[in-house]
Amino acid sequence: MARDGLADRRGEGRQQDGFLSPLLFWVSPMTMTSEATTAESVTLPPSYAIPIGLGVLALPVLALQVWLGGAIALFALFLLVQAVTLRLVFTPESLEVYRGQRCIRQFPYADWQVWSIFWSPVPILFYFREVNSIHFLPMLFQAAALRTQLESRLPQLAADAQASA
Fold first, then answer.
1. CB 65 within 8 A of CB 72
2. What is the pLDDT of residues 90-107, one digit of tens each?
3. pLDDT at position 26 over 50
4. How far apart are CA 29 and CA 68, in angstroms?
5. Is the dihedral angle over the CA atoms 151, 30, 110, 82 positive or is it negative?
6. SS (H, E, C) the chain
7. Radius of gyration of the chain from Cα atoms?
8. What does the pLDDT read at residue 19?
9. Domains of the chain by residue range
10. CA-CA distance, 123 to 125, in Å (whole number)?
11. More confidently predicted of 144 and 165
């Protein structure tokens, strides 16, 4: 795909202002794609299940232990903000992490050694190891779309991930 189309998919070049820009980035139909193709860049759709689940869990805990319930609620709020603002973009060469319109990290597939999505019934954590580092990400994006992209872009590691699941 031409670089211009990629810029549109990521939301670059669009006029957005104020504190609503992360939300506008989220609701843009161009960012909500999850087609499984290795020739194009694909942005994973967000998932709010973990932040909302932790928020709901915080309510009864708040009634029993104010400090603990408050800490869980703050963590849920933090994860919710991250789910709204962060995006994972699979490009032909790497996994890129975006905050709004800005790329904050790139992880070239050539450096990946292993990946796994923990707890299949309710995916809560995405783990991957590169040559020099280990990464854990809370599942703030749709697990099925993530698995599809990982299996299509890293087929040599997919068998290892299936064995560990």
1. no
2. 999 999 999 999 999 999
3. no
4. 38
5. negative
6. CCHHHHHHHHCCCCCCCCCCHHHHHHHCHHHCCCCCCCCCCEECCECCHHHHHHHHHHHHHHHHCHHHHHHHHHHHHHHHHHHHHEEEEECCCEEEEEECCEEEEEEEHHHEEEEEEECCCCCCEEEEEECCCEEEEECCECHHHHHHHHHHHCHHHHHHHHHHC
7. 17
8. 40
9. 3-164
10. 6
11. 144
User: What letter represents residue 142's amino acid?
Assistant: Q
pTM over 0.70: yes
Query: What residues contact 144, with CB distance under 8 A and at least 6 apart?
Result: none
Take residue 137 and report the two structure tokens written for it.
């990400």
CB-count exposure of residue 117 (10 Å: 0-12, 13-18, 19+): buried
- With beta carbons less than 8 A apart as the criterion, state whether 123 and 131 touch: no
Distance CA(20)–CA(10), nearest Å, equals 16
- d(CA 117, CA 138) in angstroms, rounded, equals 10
Distance CA 124, CA 126 (A): 7
